[in-house]
Amino acid sequence: MTVTSDVRTTPGGDRSRPSPIGWQLPPFYCPITLTGDIHPRHAELERRALEWIDSYGLYPDATERAWGLATHSAEFSCRIIPHGEPEPLLVFMMWNYWAHAVDDWLDSGSNATATGKVVDTSIRLLRALEYPGSSMMPPSPYTDALHDLVGRTRAVLSPWQLRRFTDGVRDWLFASSWQTANAERGVMPSLNDFAAMAVSINGTRFSLTWGEVANGVDLPPDVQCSPAVQALTDAAGFLVGTDNDLFSYAKEDHLEIPEQNLINVIAHERGCTPAEALTEAVGLRDRTMTLYLRLRDQLAADGDPMMRRYLDTLGDYIAGCIVWQNNAPRFASPRNRNPLPVPGSSFHITYRDTPSDPSTDAPALPAIAWWWDQLTSPDAP
Questions:
Q1: Which of 24, 10, 4 is nearest to 246 (CA)?
Q2: Is the CB of residue 305 less than 8 Å from the CB of residue 227?
Q3: In whole numbers, what is the pLDDT of the chain averaged over residues?
Q4: Can you give the pTM of this predicted structure?
């Protein structure tokens, strides 16, 4: 796939409609080791995951299957967990394929999805996870696959890990309901409100539980729940969510009700175009990256091996997501412009060595400014 001017050239696709923010995304500031690592058993685990998908008929036809596989969920899983235990990683991979299959239906921008339906489905899904055999989900291939997933999940997670994963699922579904309610009311959230919900929208806790399990991370609860670790975790999720808003923007720019992402939120609040909002969005993202790096180094200073393992897990999550999304056809050759995913499609992103916004101060957003309060030496470079 090539980029000419502001139009993505896609064989057999729509070559006439540009992306409102441009196909060439701004360079990414990510001074985290970018080794390009992917789990050594990626091919085997992907094969097993796809066999599982097909055994339940998760996709109703070849076209839906092609778009389901275009998520590159196996690559996502194996890039953010490049060195973890394979069996938990496989279950996580299955969850990602399953979640992507229902995500388009739960998408906040869908005019056909009412808040009540999302909430009702969320309750039923959570009860199926917490109480196997509760039979609250209606019969469907998705339900059959979910019940199998629940069994696999409970077999590999300890009770504490299962509780944290369930809370992560609840957090993701809570954010989906919030976004759907906003769309149903025709409300674009304020920047502060969106920043408060960004980590939940992204499903950060849903994903990180599996990174911790596969990597053998077991922080004591008082450490895991400490303000500094929570701030760092939220900052990592905010970075991944913001990057996703960049990569997925063109995928959702056809919606009658604009998608609730960082760019559209800023454009609405400032009364400007998405292209004009892009600079502020990337600046906020880069300022958060600077905070993340400083807080990470602060937590690493005590030399605790388990903490360092957790910090590595967060770093893989951030850096791996960038590499994955750059080449995932779900984003690089979006469905609103192509009848089928385009093999080999890519954004051909670049990286930068310095943040686009060099400020080390907290942004004027009370919902996240507390992250900066966790720095023990706020004025340190």
A1: 24
A2: no
A3: 90
A4: 0.92
Handedness of CA 236, 240, 243, 249 (dihedral sign): negative
- State how far the Cα of 266 lies from the Cα of 15, in Å rounded to an integer: 28
Predicted confidence (pLDDT) per residue in 151-209, tens digit: 999 999 999 999 999 999 999 999 999 999 999 999 999 999 999 999 999 999 999 99
Q: How far is CA 29 from CA 32, 81, 238, 248, 352, in A?
A: 9, 21, 14, 18, 5
Region of residue 93 (phi > 0: left; psi between -120 and 50: alpha; otherwise: beta): alpha
3-state secondary structure of 75: helix
Give the phi and the psi of residue 301 in degrees, each rounded to 5.
-65, -25
7-9 vs 2-4, strand pairing mode: antiparallel
Q: Which residues pair with 351 in a beta bridge?
A: 28
| Positions in the chain short of pLDDT 50 | 1-16, 107-112, 380-381
Residue 98 phi, psi (nearest 5): -65, -45
| 130 neighbors 136 (Cβ within 8 angstroms) | no
Copy the structure tokens of residue 213. 């399990």
Q: For 301-342, what is each residue's pLDDT tens digit?
A: 988 999 999 999 999 999 999 999 999 999 999 999 999 999
**Pairwise CA distance, residues 118 & 121, whole Å:** 5
Residue keyed to tokens 């910090």: 311
CB atoms within 10 A of CB 247: 22
Percent helix / strand / coil, the chain, rounded to 5: 60, 5, 35
Say if CB 248 and CB 331 are below 8 A apart.
yes
Quickly list DSSP for 183-248.
Answer: HHHT-PPPHHHHHHHHHHHTTHHHHHHHHHHHTT----HHHHTSHHHHHHHHHHHHHHHHHHHHHT
**Is the distance from CB of 183 to CB of 108 less than 8 angstroms?**
yes
Calpha distance 281→25 (Å, rounded): 12
> Could you tell me the sign of the dihedral formed by the alpha carbons of 231, 235, 237, 241, in that order?
positive
Task: Tell me the C-alpha distance between 233 and 25, whole Å.
Answer: 25
Structure tokens belonging to residue 95: 């969850």
